[in-house]
Automatic annotation (TrEMBL):
Organism: Caulobacter segnis
Gene3D superfamilies on file: NAD(P)-binding Rossmann-like Domain, P-loop containing nucleotide triphosphate hydrolases
InterPro entries: DgcN-like, DgcN-like_C, DgcN-like_N, P-loop_NTPase
Family matches, as SUPFAM superfamilies: P-loop containing nucleoside triphosphate hydrolases
Record domain D-glutamate N-acetyltransferase-like C-terminal: where: 150-340
Record-annotated membrane-spanning stretches: none
Residue ranges of every copy of the D-glutamate N-acetyltransferase-like N-terminal domain listed in the record: 62-141
The protein, known as: DUF1611 domain-containing protein
Length: 351
């Protein structure tokens, strides 16, 4: 299921793309919070559509929502179970199957953003047919994606880029969209990942697109618009990521952003899931994005830095934001903390 129509950000509380909400968030046996970004994203941005969480034995990640078995969630009004995990490779482990079948038998549809297709798993397919429930794969790109052309197009575009995966590109894009809308501007959030699509009800799962068509998919996602219109495009991966850099590059070329915001998590030292690969510096990401972005957007510029300071105290976060701003000479903020620093970042996005 993929949708590419415009969905204003103030409508994100509506049921997204026909998905069966309210949701029960499935966390499986996940032990790494970074892999549960779908669950956390839904909790943080459309929490009114989430009734609880379902964690399997051995799981050590929680969203803080009530722990509910599928039957309990159905009794609380849940209509769908969302796989809230985005693990390496997007696989559905065999030890999850019994829990997912339990959800189907409790009357819940299953919504997945994994690369693995629900209907390709015999046990799930049989249970869905037996119970009359739906298996919904969000990470399915639309048909007819063209090859990118790289030609200039009207409208303004802001892209979030990162020093790694799962460190705040989606949150930054959503917060920037919300902040610019609060200023009365014509802005759309453009989702490029499964969680963003579930939140906004529109988008293209860019990492499920064949590589030759990634730039074209990005052009299709953020088409020509009025000169006053702004698209804030959710970034994916990192240009300097050892596995996912190709996705990030195609998205950069097709988005043709006028400006970009670099997202970074202070304290993270290694690429998530890739021990031995050091996190690139913010400066390295700025340099790479400028050099490669100029292929389709000659005047591309860095608007500033978004720091994910969720693991820091308010005092430490303020000090880190000030230190990075002084080092780089750019606006730096944690969009979720807001304040004057975030307003300066928004000013720079509009410069």
């Amino acid at each position: 299921m993929s949708v590419t129509a415009r969905v204003p950000q103030d409508e994100v509380s509506r049921e997204a793309a026909g998905l069966p909400s309210p949701y029960l968030l499935f966390l499986g046996d996940t032990v790494e919070p970074g892999y549960a970004k779908t669950a956390f994203g839904l909790r943080d941005w459309v929490g009114e559509r989430c009734v609880g969480e379902f964690v399997l034995p051995g799981g050590r990640v929680s969203t803080g929502l009530p722990a509910l078995a599928p039957a309990q969630a159905a009794a609380e009004g849940a209509r769908g179970l969302v796989i809230g995990v985005a693990n390496a490779g997007g696989i559905i482990p065999s030890n999850w199957i019994a829990g997912l079948v339990e959800a189907l038998e409790a009357g819940l549809d299953i919504v997945s953003g994994m690369h693995a297709r629900l209907g390709d798993i015999p046990e799930l397919k049989a249970a869905a047919e037996r119970t009359g429930r739906r298996l919904i794969d969000v990470r399915t790109p639309p048909t007819g994606i063209p090859v990118g052309v790289g030609k200039p197009r009207l409208g303004r575009r802001i892209l979030t880029v990162g020093t790694d995966c799962a460190l705040g590109k989606k949150y930054a894009a959503l917060a920037i969209t919300r902040g610019l809308k609060a200023r009365g501007l014509d802005v759309d959030f453009r989702a490029t990942g499964q969680t963003g699509i579930m939140i906004a009800g529109a988008g293209v799962p860019i990492d499920a697109v064949v590589s030759d068509f990634v730039a074209g998919a990005a052009e299709m996602l953020s088409p020509a618009a009025a000169s006053s219109h702004i698209d804030v495009i959710e970034g994916q991966g990192s240009l300097l990521h050892p596995a996912y850099g190709a996705v990030s590059l195609g998205l950069l070329h097709g988005s043709q952003p006028d400006s970009f915001v670099v997202c970074h998590e202070p304290g993270r030292t290694e690429i998530l899931g890739h021990p031995g690969f050091a996190i690139p510096s913010i400066e390295a990401v700025i340099s790479a994005t400028l050099a490669l972005g100029q292929v389709t957007s000659p005047d591309i510029r860095c608007a500033g830095i978004s720091l994910n300071t969720g693991k820091l105290t308010p005092e430490a976060a303020e000090a880190e934001i000030a230190a990075v701003a002084a080092r780089l000479g750019l606006p730096v903020a944690d969009p979720l903390r807001g304040g004057a620093a975030f307003e300066r970042l928004l000013d720079s996005c509009l410069a």
